[in-house]
Amino acid sequence: MAALSGLGALRAGCRVWRFPARLSAGLRGCWLQRGYVVGRTESPPTFGLLFDIDGVLVRGHRVIPAALEAFSKMLNSHGQLRVPVVFVTNAGNILQHSKAQELSGLLGCKVDPDQVILSHSPMKLFLQYHNKRMLVSGQGPLLENARALGFQNVVTVDELRLTFPELDMVDLERRPKKNTCPRNDFSAVEGVLLLGEPVRWETSLQLIMDVLLSNGNPGAGLVAAPYPHLPVLASNMDLLWMAEAKMPSDNPVSDVFGANLFNQYLQTAKRGEKEPGTGGQQKSRPSTIQSCASILVCTGIHSCQDSAPEGPTSGGPELPFHGHRDFSFSPELLEASHVVRDVNEAVQLVFQQEGWA
């Protein structure tokens, strides 16, 4: 999880992680406790599920019927989840608790905010940037999300545009009609925070470039382009997903890449090796998770009639790799552990393999 895209690339559908057997007894007093039915001899689960949302559980604002079937299997008689469940999404234009409320209403079960991982959730670990003055770009509740992540000193693109109106030159209607006085009371920007796709791309791109080229002082003249430039924290590089539109629009390279990359990280951590691309953030605690298996469903971008997702190849034109630059492309990371029709079949498969009714 060194990259800043939630748990990496999503769209894998359903992912399984396994707890060490010795841990299952200790979980009885934790949040798994609420999933037990009094009087049953059901053993506590030693596995959990990570669910992608778009194209797996919902298409836009409509629940996929298979998702309701799947969750009916995971609820006890009190409507509580019997297994650990976490929802992962590349969405970043919503507050964590709002996404939890939305999922609760759609799936008919209680989803807590800490069960939702948004694309920018890992930014909570980047403590060294939390007190720096950051230019934040995206849409939705930008300031609320930035502050919830720990960033205390942020300025939005709109605020920057109003301070330096002469920089926003693409939209002719918004160009200043008369000369403005230069500002010398603007505190320098120390980094850029990308929490999702903006609405006005041209304004965001222009002002972000101005900030980078001026080393955080967009009102100053450019002498030479600074290198290295100010840090840019990008929470989500995947701009493709499956919603109501019929045209498939997901990045095929990100389908199962994230789940398999996470599993590779777990195995590397077991061997005590250093994982590349983890510099600059808070050192994470040792994981109690042993492995992560990827299950690809056919209700999103991927169709069961399609061949396996393709990535960059040595022959022919090379497809773009949209993963984090710190991770080199490995073809085996695109191979899902299992391919099933929908999320209901995925849950049934997991329960069968885990010997769990």
UniProtKB/TrEMBL annotation:
Domain of life: Eukaryota
InterPro entries (alphabetical): CDP-alcohol_PTase-I, HAD-like_sf, HAD-SF_hydro_IIA, HAD-SF_hydro_IIA_CECR5, HAD_sf
GO cellular component labels: mitochondrion
Single biological process term from Gene Ontology: glycerophospholipid biosynthetic process
Pfam families: Hydrolase_6
Positions of transmembrane segments: none
PANTHER family named among the record's database cross-references: CDP-DIACYLGLYCEROL--GLYCEROL-3-PHOSPHATE 3-PHOSPHATIDYLTRANSFERASE-RELATED, HALOACID DEHALOGENASE-LIKE HYDROLASE DOMAIN-CONTAINING 5
Protein name, entry field: Haloacid dehalogenase-like hydrolase domain-containing 5 isoform X2
Origin species: Mesocricetus auratus
